Amino acid sequence: MKRSAKRVLSLATGVGTIAGCLALVTSPAAQAAGPAHAFPSHQTYKVGVMPSASQATRDAAVQKQYDSWKANYLVHGCASNEYYISTKGDGDATNNGPVSEGQGYGMNIVPLMAGYDANAQTEFNGLWQLVKDHEDQYGMMQWQLDGKTCKYYSGGTPDGATDGDLDIGYGLILADKQWGGYQADALNWLSNFYAHNVAPDGHLKCEDDGPNTDTRPSDHMIDHLRAFAAYDTAHDWNKVITRTEAVDSSLVNSYSSANGLLPDFVVGANGTPSPAPANYQENQPDNIVGYNSIRVPWHMGTDALLNGTASTFELSDATKWSACAKKVSGGDPGKVYPHLNLNCTAHSTSDVAEEAGDAIGPSAMAAGDQAWTDTIWNFLQTNPYGDGYYGESIKTLVMIVMAGDYWSPGSSSTPPPSNDFSLSSSPTSGSVVQGSSATATIGTAVTSGSAESVALSASGLPSGATATFSPASVTSGASSALTIATAATTPAGTYSVTVTGTASSGSHTATYTLTVTTAGGGGTCTAAQLLGNPGFESGATVWTQTSTLGFTPITKATSAEPAHAGSWIAYFNGNGSTDTDTAAQSVTIPTGCTATLSYWLHIDTTESTTTAKPDTFKVQVLNSSGTVLATVGTYSNLDKNTGYAKKTADLSSYAGQTVTLKFTGAETDANGGTTNFILDDTAINTQ
Q1: Can you tell me which residues the record assigns to a coiled coil (predicted)?
Q2: What are the angstrom distances between the C-alpha of 353 and each of 334, 358, 425, 541, 668?
Q3: What's the rounded Cα separation, in Å, for the pair 193 and 430?
Q4: Cβ(207)–Cβ(143) below 8 Å
């Protein structure tokens, strides 16, 4: 995917190498003792839902994405005290140079990651230094620079672009709240912006030297404007907010009332706004959703999450936009195409971009659509189209929002959130025969503040039954295995077991319903093996398979990868490329039975690492809706072995249920090596 430049360029975009530079010199602001809002800064948003992944998982995903983004796009140059965000992969500037939009993204991302990134303030100061060294006649950043010389190269007098200048101003406020010492710079920047980027009626212009009639909805970052209003009382930012919302509301009501979509460019913004003509500013249909307005649901959703019902229009529009994207894509974020007609139909399906689907995430959260939110969060962990700086920068900021780590600098008195957590059981019920055991996974998640130690206990057990947790205490965000063992004398019946998690912030509970049956009554069980084609000897039958590379796992064994028994195996990964392979089968475990899963697993790898786990293999139990009830086996390239090893897991807690057993191999190709996960001779035996 190659994204259209923000404006039509009069010069061809060249490709070259990025100049290296010397060590950074002293930054303009004194280095603070530490950030005031160190990442992860867990927030409780005012509306909506969070991704179902645990807080710890979300934080780790953000860190991984940030490391990748920083390694690819944060460049030390052109001067020794400058950093810039490279447009590598998108061709928006010659020699992969910076544009003001990307510089603004960087000046937002870096202070939000302070605490995780020990060099964040030094990097921020370098980003800000490059902006100061390349200001236009109005004190805004020259919007497009060469990657080798950092000289302005676009045609005409150097000018600024509103989106980048908005983000730069917001970044300065973030830095001031994070480290202090940037107030004078921030207020001066906002003053210049207000004077040259705000039209007389209060709407945002497209650029500082542009006409007072045009605007661009992707610049309408209401959460930024609210922060400006709280921080800079010398200018009437509330006027800007009111007029911006009025323009957007008029457009939606007139052109997309059912779907909430906004076009790339708008004319008549100082009167009755309407979509700009096609190819008005760019060589694409500027009168529909395009590579500019795909950012709108990210901004609308973020403002709604931060401000709740105070963001009446933004919350409504985010909800509509999310529903449109889900409908037009069939619930596949990869099919949220970059160009949408305002009636919520795809303008073209020949162009794809990761950021089109990524940007819907905050709106899906604000809309309260849990399944769609989870789907988008999972999509964010990929880059299916090999997108460059634009998509990866948007992804990084969207992931920070969706992880719950996006804090608002709008008020100097905003206190850090108090610590809190949630508790859950998966599954929530189980049936056992007297004398046997039931198992469940007790999950915890950070709902605000920071992670804390949570001690686990259980009450409401029937006589003769005991409950153990492994481990007995977890850090919120982690999980523990609960085992409830019954005695032969435990009375038959159904019991409500209360699991309690206790931390310094307080206690929370989850309920597990335990049914105990008698060995001589309705709880009798006929011994059986429940899986069909357990050794894969019937080939690709019974099992459901998927593979992102098209190499489904069940295959004939070879001398290089022999079977444990017979002549067929399930061969996961081993392609030397990013790949996810799955094999799954649904099975009903009879009531009153104990059930044991067993399988033979061989792992060999060419990965040289002794600590990293780029390649993984999971064994999971899912319900009929596809929700993971438990992960009963987790392996990686570090578990390589010679020959096969037998693995087992107790599935007795799922007696009386129809569940899906799923094996998933995932290879990232992160370290250049490859891992083979070879599965054979599976079984679920009951007795």
Answers
A1: none
A2: 8, 9, 38, 36, 21
A3: 62
A4: yes
Q: Is 401 helix (H, G, I), strand (E, B) or coil?
A: helix
Q: Around Cβ 85, how many Cβ atoms within 10 Å?
A: 28
Burial-class residue 110 by CB neighbours within 10 Å (0-12, 13-18, 19+). buried
The pTM of this model reads: 0.61
SS3 for 305-345, per residue?
HHHHHHCHHHHHHHHHHHHHHHHHHCCCHHHCCCCECCCCC
Note every long-range contact of 642-647, with CB atoms under 8 Å and residues 24 or more positions apart, other chains counting.
643/602, 644/564, 644/600, 644/601, 644/602, 644/678, 644/680, 645/600, 645/601, 645/602, 646/598, 646/599, 646/600, 647/598, 647/599, 647/600, 647/601, 647/619
Ranges in the chain, pLDDT < 70: 1-33, 411-418, 519-524
Q: How far apart are CA 299 and CA 260, in angstroms?
A: 13
DSSP summary character for residue 294: G
Three-state SS for 69?
helix
Contact at 8 Å (CB) between 257 and 263?
A: no
The CA dihedral of 300, 306, 312, 317, to the nearest 10 degrees, is 20
Could you give the residue numbers annotated as active site?
101, 163
Measured CA to CA, the distance from residue 225 to residue 182 in angstroms comes to 18
List the beta strands (DSSP E) in 43-122. 74-76, 83-85
Tracing tokens 């290879």 back to the chain, one arrives at 667
**pLDDT tens digit sequence for 257-303:** 999 999 999 999 999 999 999 989 887 789 999 999 999 999 999 99
Cβ pair 119, 24 in contact under 8 A: no
**559-to-109, 475, 536, 562, 568 alpha-carbon distances in Å:** 51, 46, 17, 5, 12
Residue for token pair 């059912």: 258
Residue 468 in tokens: 């153990």
Tokens 């390349």 correspond to: 134
